[in-house]
TrEMBL record:
Gene3D superfamilies registered for this protein in UniProt: P-loop containing nucleotide triphosphate hydrolases (3.40.50.300)
The name this protein goes by in its record: Fe-S cluster assembly ATP-binding protein
Residues in ABC transporter domain copies: 2-248
Keywords, sorted A to Z: ATP-binding, Nucleotide-binding
Transmembrane segments: none
Lineage, broadest ranks: Bacteria, Pseudomonadati, Pseudomonadota, Alphaproteobacteria, Hyphomicrobiales
An example Gene Ontology molecular-function term: ATP binding
Family affiliation: Belongs to the ABC transporter superfamily. Ycf16 family.
Pfam family, any one: ABC_tran
Length: 251
């Protein structure tokens, strides 16, 4: 499903290389956790996957279902089913969350050659998904993410994810700043999205989230490379011993 081969990427403006020969495979139906110390390049990897123009790929490949996505712009990537939830979600003043959802869903339908949703159909889908996330419908009238708490932002993101039904989801540091109740709701939402034809990449600094989203694979990122991969027991090992041992081993 997702194959990253010898990926090198740098910040366009300064030319600083952040991703330095990264290899990673995430299979269909798999939930993969990417862990690593602060500054190891986790967020940068998610930006590069999204196709943000301020990062340049200088070497290597990102294959999605066997095809390179490097030439696709962010909208094309989204249309093929890639969804990224960022560490710092964008605030969109003046656009009600419901309106944002409508535009996003209909843009995706258009890219697939489908008609826009009728208003009743849209409302029905949004109500159902919001209900599954135990989300207050009143929130949908507020501008997206403006003044939302950390938990509300994450919930809004999971709602988008449920409605857009992506094939590849990448969630960056979904757990930062969340209290335990919000964390459980996010984990619940992600678990509801698990399916044999969907891959989910969960980027996290701490093991805590992985108590609720049990990963099929764990990869440790350090200095822009995957230095160790394993199953969920690797996350427990990291929780207990920290990153130092693994970094030394890799060196
Ligand atoms: P993580 O998410 O793992 O904490 P990041 O991807 O945010 O790591 O950052 C990786 C490294 O890249 C850090 O050393 C950070 O300082 C550096 N970095 C990030 N953005 C830029 C930028 N625009 N210019 C230069 N260096 C950057
Ligand atoms: Mg960081
Ligand atoms: Mg980060």
């Amino acid at each position: 499903m997702l194959e990253i081969k010898n990926l090198h990427a740098r910040v366009a403006e300064s030319g600083v290389e952040i991703i330095r020969g990264l290899n990673l495979t995430v299979k269909d139906g798999e939930v993969a956790a990417i862990m690593g110390p602060n500054g190891s390049g986790k967020s940068t990897l998610s930006y590069v996957l999204a196709g943000r123009p301020d990062y340049e790929v200088t070497e290597g490949e990102i294959l999605y279902n066997g095809e390179s996505i490097l030439e696709m712009d962010p909208a094309e990537r989204a249309a093929t089913g890639v969804f990224l939830a960022f560490q710092y979600p964008m605030e969109i003043p003046g656009v009600a969350t419901m309106e944002f959802l409508k535009v996003a869903m209909n843009a995706q339908r258009k890219a697939r050659g489908e008609d826009p949703l009728s208003i009743p159909d849209l409302l029905k889908r949004v109500k159902q998904a919001a209900g599954e996330l135990d989300m207050d419908m009143g929130m949908l009238k507020r501008p997206l993410n403006v003044g939302f708490s950390g938990g509300e932002k994450k919930r809004a993101e999971i709602l988008q994810m449920k409605l857009l039904e992506p094939k590849l989801c990448v969630l960056d540091e979904t757990d930062s700043g969340l209290d335990i109740d919000a964390l459980k709701i996010v984990a619940d939402g992600v678990n509801q999205l698990r399916s044999p034809d969907r891959s989910i990449v969960v980027i996290t600094h701490y093991q805590r989230l992985l108590d609720y989203i049990v990963p099929d694979a764990v990869h440790v990122l350090y200095k822009g490379q995957v230095i160790k991969s394993g199953d969920k027991s690797l996350a427990y090992e990291l929780e207990e011993n920290g990153y130092a041992g693994i970094i030394e081993e890799a060196a």
